Amino acid sequence: MAVTIRDVARATGVHVSTVSRTFSAPNLVSTPTRERVMAVAAELGYRPNRAARALTTGRTHNLGLIVSDIANPFFPPLIKAAQAYAREREYHVFVADTDEDPQAEEELIRTLAKQVDGVVLVAPRLTNQAIERLGLELPFVVVNRRVKGLSAVLMDIGHGTELAVEHLAGLGHRRLGLLSGPRGSWSSEQMKRAAAVAAERADLRLTVIGPNAPTERGGIAAATAVRDSGVTAVIAYNDLVAIGLIEGLGELGTEVPADMSVVGVDDTVAGRLNRPKLTTIVMPTPAAGRTAVDLLLQAVDEDGRTAAQATLATDLVVRESTAAAPGVADTGA
């Protein structure tokens, strides 16, 4: 027969209500008692009834996680890390994909709001005003976007962009291109600002090309504009755009890195397997997934009354897609 809450209470020597609070509101139970109850429950194989607990606590113990394009290799490591961390906290995660459509994003949020305690919104396409309005209805954590009144996890793409500019300057490049992302992208705007500052500091000429779709096709479509811009090196919005750009440049007879150096963003498996292997800005996606769930559970516990922000470091990994500028001896930078 299935182990019941009364079996756990009897074996632990506490009241049934204490066992119930251990699972529904552990902060209300002393640490020694909570640990004893959890140990006995594990030994007996007891699993709390999620539906009953939801009725008692008003919590579903479900979280929503919405991404803009689940096919983009940037997202799976973040999703897996978020799910694993949530599972450790006895939460389940519902994952949804908006296909880069802000209207679909809002519809998904409203649908999930009936089934979850809070939502992690990753690289959203909605306006800040729309997100603020939806944030009044349930707790939110936004990844790679600052929204007033909401907790956020930011990956310091600005620092990574500066490292990329410095790397390319060290290779002798004097004219740089920045292949921006979709209109309204927070990450793209941070990259533009950081690239402009770093380029001015290094006395380089910067050309921004975009907006562009954040996909391989977006990179292919931008290849002609990149070739005709006169730049000798490009920082692309993400690895997919960089891979598409390399493909498109190849079709135009421009070789990477001999004729054009290309830097991606994200450090995805696709970039590591590409030929040439991508030099790229490393984004801490697993850490972002874990941190986002942690901040969301804090927001759920506090009914969204407080907002916290975490900023995660980025780095640059140099591989095969960058080289000395044409006509410049390789300095080994």
Automatic annotation (TrEMBL):
SMART domains: HTH_LACI (SM00354)
Residue ranges annotated for the HTH lacI-type domain, each copy included: 3-57
Pfam family, one: Peripla_BP_3
GO molecular function, a single term: DNA-binding transcription factor activity
Key words, A-Z: DNA-binding, Transcription, Transcription regulation
Superkingdom of origin: Bacteria
PANTHER family noted in UniProt: LACI-RELATED TRANSCRIPTIONAL REPRESSOR (PTHR30146), TRANSCRIPTIONAL REGULATORY PROTEIN (PTHR30146:SF138)
UniProt-recorded name of the protein: LacI family DNA-binding transcriptional regulator
Species lineage: Bacteria, Bacillati, Actinomycetota, Actinomycetes, Kitasatosporales
